[in-house]
């Protein structure tokens, strides 16, 4: 091996690093040995022992680094497992709280029924049914509506979705059902209320911001002549035309003993204070059933 | 041969006693490993070149580890620790590669 002449650490440092990767000290030491002869035996032995101890230390270092890396691994896995755990725990907690909310709501309505007189209670129940807040059971109509086959352009091979059910179709169907006297309507298992939305979002159709897809099953409960009345509506006629023109699926069946679930919790949109503004402490407003007339809250939130 | 046995013994010893690394030193462990590997492969190559020197081996290992750790420490203090560690790994890695190539030429004549 040709010793790298002068070790300059100038711009050539990288070049010399690539060409002479060995520590130049070895060459220097060899040159010195050639010049002055070998070291004294005692010094040589001491150096040899030191070198062996250094090698031992290197071995320990490698082992420790290996152990450390292995130990770090489960730490990461543990962190992940802990996160998964906490997600699941929180989910279970949410479920439990939702169930508790449902139980409490039921309790509230029972207590309210007990408080109210018979006519008031039945009026309230009717209102709740119309508002979609309660489960409804009864005879009605099930309409099944499904996309027609996608047309494939013979030239480009692109699929055209012109035969699919559009959001307008659902709109007119649902509106006509309300018109002919339906008291409760569900689209793919989602109960509609007066505040519900059926919107198109790109190609997807969303009912109350939850996506629904073909086949669309519209279930409704209403008077006994609901199916006949519905068959005479414009939307039913339009659907029959669409079936002929676009190959959509459209079927209306009378079904007995339908059960429509309550609509999911609606956010509170408007509230009115039943008590006069509290004068002494906030606790005052918590008095239940105070026999005071309803008063508008005056802007203090 | 003796050195090789010592290396094996060191690994076994390290696995057996499993010394606790102080938290302060833990960031320097990877750099120290690379520096140690550089010293080991340099030593093997020097041995094959018949210019191995015990003193040079010891000094090169210790100085490698210390300089590498110092550079990383300084980098950490100045906010460029990651980049300087990369630099250290690149320089030592190039040396390891070159020395391993030389060892290969020695052993296989290719």
UniProtKB/TrEMBL annotation, chain A:
Residues that span the membrane, as ranges: 45-66
Domain of life: Bacteria
Region (Disordered): 271-301
Keywords associated with the record: Coiled coil, Membrane, Transmembrane, Transmembrane helix
Coiled coil: 87-114
Keyword hit for Transmembrane helix: yes
Family: Belongs to the UPF0749 family.
Stated name of the protein: DUF881 domain-containing protein
Organism: Pilimelia columellifera subsp. columellifera
Automatic annotation (TrEMBL), chain B:
Segments traversing the membrane: 24-44, 56-74, 80-103
Chief location: membrane
Superkingdom, natural source: Bacteria
Entry membrane topology: Multi-pass membrane protein
InterPro entries (UniProt xref): DUF1290
Subcellular location: Cell membrane
Key words, A-Z: Cell membrane, Membrane, Transmembrane, Transmembrane helix
Family affiliation: Belongs to the sbp family.
Annotated protein name in UniProt: Small basic family protein
Gene source species: Pilimelia columellifera subsp. columellifera
């Amino acid at each position: 091996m040709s010793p790298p002449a002068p070790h300059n650490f100038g711009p050539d440092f990288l070049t010399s690093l690539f060409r002479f990767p060995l520590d130049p000290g070895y060459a220097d030491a060899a040159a010195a040995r050639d010049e002055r002869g070998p070291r004294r035996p005692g010094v040589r032995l001491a150096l040899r022992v030191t070198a062996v101890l250094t090698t031992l230390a290197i071995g320990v270092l490698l082992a420790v680094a290996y152990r450390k890396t292995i130990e770090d691994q489960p730490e990461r896995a543990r962190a992940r497992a802990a996160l998964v755990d906490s997600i699941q725990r929180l989910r279970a907690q949410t479920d439990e709280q939702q169930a508790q909310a449902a139980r409490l709501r039921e309790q509230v309505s029972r207590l309210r029924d007990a408080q109210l007189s018979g006519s008031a209670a039945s009026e309230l129940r009717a209102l709740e049914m119309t508002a979609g807040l309660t489960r409804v059971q009864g005879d009605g109509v099930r309409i099944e509506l499904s996309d027609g086959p996608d047309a494939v352009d013979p030239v480009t091979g692109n699929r055209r979705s012109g035969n699919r059910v559009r959001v307008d179709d659902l709109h007119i169907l649902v509106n006509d059902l309300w018109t002919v006297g339906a008291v409760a309507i569900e689209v793919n298992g989602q109960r509609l209320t007066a505040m519900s939305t059926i919107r198109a979002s790109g190609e997807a159709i969303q009912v109350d911001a939850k996506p629904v897809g073909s086949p669309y099953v519209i279930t409704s409960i209403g008077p006994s002549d609901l199916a006949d009345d519905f068959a005479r509506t414009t939307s039913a006629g339009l659907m029959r035309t669409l079936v002929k023109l676009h190959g959509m699926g459209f079927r209306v069946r009378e079904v007995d003993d339908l059960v429509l679930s309550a609509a999911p919790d609606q956010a509170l949109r408007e509230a009115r204070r039943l008590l006069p503004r509290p004068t002494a402490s906030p606790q005052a407003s918590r008095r239940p059933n105070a026999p005071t007339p309803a008063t508008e809250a005056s802007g203090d939130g | 041969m003796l050195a090789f046995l010592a290396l094996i013994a060191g690994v076994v010893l390290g696995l057996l006693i499993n010394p606790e690394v102080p938290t302060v030193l833990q960031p320097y462990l990877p750099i120290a490993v690379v520096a140690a590997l550089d010293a080991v492969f340099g030593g093997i190559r020097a041995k094959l070149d018949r210019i191995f020197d015990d003193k040079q081996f010891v000094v090169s290992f210790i100085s490698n580890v210390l300089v590498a750790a110092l550079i990383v420490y300084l980098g950490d203090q100045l906010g460029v620790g990651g980049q300087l560690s990369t630099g250290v790994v690149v320089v030592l890695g190039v040396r390891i590669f070159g020395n391993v190539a030389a060892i290969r030429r020695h052993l296989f004549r290719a």
